[in-house]
Specification:
alpha/beta, Rossmann fold, 2 domains, nine-stranded mixed sheet, 12 helices, 9 strands, globular, binds nicotinamide-adenine-dinucleotide, oxidoreductase activity, acting on the CH-OH group of donors, NAD or NADP as acceptor, oxidoreductase
């Protein structure tokens, strides 16, 4: 398992002056990421549903800037609206000739409602369509696919180098997560999206890199009711800043592409390396050989859809 270490020097060198579009920066991991980027001198354009928390963050950062601080703009945003996501990228382009980094951070927890509870699910309750489960997928996965598409267009069509997209999955996107039925499905989808893009975008979109961040328990409002027991059991907890540093490392380090960075207890590890390396073990040696040949035949997947 390869550890990913945050380098302050590299972040300072490669992120100062960069133009960053970020969704979900009003609080939690997003706010920590906005704060670090601002301190490093990046120009941030962030969107969030929570306007009051976003404006409070923006004013606290701009009220006491250091000489190295970058600029920061906020746009009220609902990621389920495609045009709303487009507007955020347009806002960045109205101030700068290029966009360098796109960071997707919005996520919402499993909706309450006992949709899979054996004590609630029966032949009567099953007749009500569970719309909150669909909305959860809409926010946690559909909007991420659309964000990636928009980001590729804006990053590849504007000048600059060392460009990248960072998507946010979860430990629940890598492993089983009973209780998180829609959330975990969506977060697995984010890893799938990153895997579909990681060979494709560097060659088809001017070297754009794509990585996914997969936090384990992180001290934000999202932990909700789980937090008390987690702390009581003395389980490892990330600070939002720990996760933000891994996001910055993915943005700064030109060698990082196609990683799924598990962040636990404050440290980051690429889980894809182990999955790829042990392919013959979990798929079977012969299956793995044929599968890899099949991947070569499929190439970058241009034949899946009609041209
Ligand atoms: N906190 C954890 O333990 C943890 C663990 C694994 C993954 N994650 C992931 O990390 C990311 C950030 O999580 P966090 O813990 O900082 O959560 P958070 O709740 O603190 O922040 C999420 C932000 O997204 C915004 N948001 C929600 N719905 C939106 C929408 N439709 N449009 C625009 N903005 C919207 C919220 O207003 C909020 O500011 C999420 O994708 C989450 O799934 C968090």
């Amino acid at each position: 398992m390869s550890e990913i270490i945050f380098s302050d020097t590299l972040a300072t060198q490669n992120l100062r002056g960069k133009v960053v579009v970020l969704t979900g920066g009003a609080q939690g991991i997003g706010a920590a990421t906005v704060t670090l980027l601002h301190q490093l001198g990046a120009h941030i354009f962030f969107g969030d549903l929570d306007t009051s928390k976003a404006l409070a963050l923006q004013s606290s950062l701009t009220s006491s800037p250091s000489p190295d601080s970058g600029t920061i703009h906020f746009l009220p945003l609902d990621v389920t609206s495609y045009s709303s996501q487009l507007s955020l990228f347009d806002l960045a382009l109205s101030h700068h000739p290029q966009i360098d980094i796109a960071i997707q951070l919005v996520g919402v927890p499993e909706p309450p409602g006992n949709y899979f509870s054996p004590s609630h699910l029966n032949l009567t309750t099953v007749r009500d369509e569970p719309l909150p489960l669909k909305q959860n997928i809409d926010i946690n996965l559909t909007s991420v696919i659309l964000f990636s598409r928009i980001a590729l267009a804006y990053l590849s069509s504007t000048p600059g180098s060392n460009k990248s997209i960072i998507l946010t999955s979860s430990i629940a996107g890598i492993t089983e997560a009973p209780g998180l039925f829609s959330y975990s499905s969506a977060k697995h989808g984010v890893i799938g999206l990153m895997r579909s893009l990681r060979r494709f975008t560097p060659s088809q979109f001017n070297g754009i890199r794509v990585n996914a961040i997969c936090p384990w328990a992180t001290d934000t409002q999202m932990l909700g009711g789980v937090k008390k027991n987690w702390e009581k059991e003395n389980m490892p907890m990330n600070t939002p800043k720990d996760v933000a540093k891994m996001i910055l490392q993915c943005a700064a380090d030109e060698t990082l592409n196609g990683k799924a960075v598990f962040v636990g207890g404050g440290r980051g590890f690429d889980t894809e390396e182990g999955i790829d390396r042990t392919l013959p073990e979990w798929m079977g040696k012969e299956n793995a050989e044929v599968f890899l040949r099949g991947q070569e035949v499929l190439g970058l997947g241009g034949d899946w859809v009609d041209k």
